[in-house]
Amino acid sequence: MSEEDSAEATIVTGLLHLLEPVTIEYDQRIRAVQLAQAELADRIDVLTKQITDCVAETEFVDVSPYLQKLVNSRKKIMNVATTLNTISERLARMNRQAQNKVGDH
Questions:
Q1: pTM for the full model?
Q2: Around 63, how many Cα atoms within 13 Å sit in the side-chain half-sphere?
Q3: pLDDT for 27-86, tens place per residue?
Q4: Structural domains of the chain, count
Q5: What is the rounded end-to-end Cα distance, in angstroms, of the chain?
Q6: Beta carbons within 8 Å of 33's beta carbon, 6+ residues apart
Q7: By the 8 A CB rule, do 94 and 12 touch?
Q8: Where in the sequence is the domain holding 78, given as residue range(s)?
């Protein structure tokens, strides 16, 4: 192994040790947000059903705009969940690549 390879391996190892705790923390936080969003989406579904049932029983209040807001909120939550999943996958891929790079040296 040349000095250049040794220096590169040292830098890669140092970066891996520096970034690994950050990626683990972000991964944990992303998972927590995903769980919270899934729970919120479930609650929105329950609330939507309750409002729909209520509307079927009474006709004096137009709740259609509120139902649409709930539906739109759920769509936004799902979009954020998709984005967070993509970020989580990228972090995992970066972590694997860094570990492979260290393993190569």
A1: 0.57
A2: 18
A3: 899 989 999 999 999 999 999 999 888 877 776 677 788 889 999 999 999 999 999 999
A4: 1
A5: 9
A6: 80, 84
A7: no
A8: 3-104
